[in-house]
Target: Ectonucleoside triphosphate diphosphohydrolase 2-like
Amino acid sequence: MGLRYAQIILAVLLLISAIVGILLVVVPAKVMEAPAENMYGIVLDAGSSHTSMFIYKWPADKQNGTGIVSQHNECHVKGGGISSYAGIPGGAGKSLEACLNQAVKDIPKSRHHQTPLCLGATAGMRLLEEVNATESQRVIKEVENKLKSYPFKFKEAVILSGQAEGAHGWVTVNYLLENFVKYGFVGRWLNPGRETIGALDLGGASTQITFETSEKIENKSNLMELKLYGQNYRLYTQSFLCYGQDQFLRRLMAYLIKTQGIKPQLSHPCYPPNFQTHIKLGEDVFDSPCTKKYRPAQFNPEMDVTVVGTGDYQMCLNNVTKMFSFGNCSYSKCSFDGVFQPSVRGSFMAFSAYFFTHSYLNTLTNISITSPTQMEEAVKRVCSMDMSQMKAKTGKPEKYMKNVCAVANFVQVLLMKGYHFNETSFPSISFKEKAGGASVGWALGYMLSVSNTVPAESLRLVTALPLAVWAVVIFIFVALLLIAVGHLVMIYRNKRTKEDMV
Model:
């Protein structure tokens, strides 16, 4: 009796297992749509002072033709920008190896061959192109060959125009602020219908301003039309070569030398009072094409000059203002150097050196700068501080602090007198380094543009199990079902036979 009950229980368990197993396999086994895996892209931002590598990712099915891109990782190349390797064959390419090797590890191997790899060189290479086009082409070809040696999908290694750099920066800003596309509560990406904001970029060798406008753009070289996420945008964009932070400082030094004459000691109104440093006339001042107009007919490039700071705000401002030309406008309105500019409108984001200058002013003075008046007051205070005060308040070394007064005056003149921001429009500028977890700059906008050319992958059709495996599993569970039913039938027949015998 006990054995018969055990057999019945075993058969019932087999029967239940078989039925449950069949249901689990059959019910989810319908064809379903699943999102495609991520795609990846790599952008090398080859700036005038250094190169940064950014790895981005986006869903492979994309959104209205443009990838929903986020930053995956970043790497900063050691050493100077690729333009600093002019005359040093092999140097530019080799400098990129550590970051490219990191990209090989960061991106899934299955995606390597589909990952677009691009290098965009900016104002440093634009300057090299002006003075030595042959060497500029050699450097670009060298880094191109290096990029092609990696298992990614090489797209291009190019010198970006100033306008393209500005436009890509504008795209980055508005993407990070979700002005193009936003994930809605309905579970899909939507156009939020927001106003775009302008972009203000201050690099090492150039500065860019880009914003959407409905005004007539009188110089067609300032017009750029973009299509992103199914929407059209009409932009004003302008890049000023030699107006980046590093080249401005060179030009200011060259102007001071021209006005004071070449002599062993130079007075610098923008340096902290009594601060001293040494420069060489060649490599530190006149070797750049940006200082050509101030270059003496004859000078010793190896001559060592002692530069002494005086911390004179007004003298500093006067000298900085002379770096700009505010006359000779052949259009209805201009910014400076005879360049057309429509009226600034709406909000702006200022990044790169703008952010660091604003941050230093805030830290050094505790003034929350939201107006031209507040900025002027902060700059005045900073220009009167000595080096020990500045280092104590910021914890930063001399090489950064010595230029804060000069660059702050430059930013003040550029924004207010150059771009015509005023007490009404200045508060609309936000100074940022990062937004939405990504670095603010032109690289993300460039990646969005490149992703527009990468074919989208359709949603994959998937089943719960591969078809062959699914069929085998079904067969096993059906077999178990038949065995269980057969066993129960045998038990039932044996029981009837014994009852008949009685």
Observations:
- DSSP finds 16 helices and 20 strands in the chain.
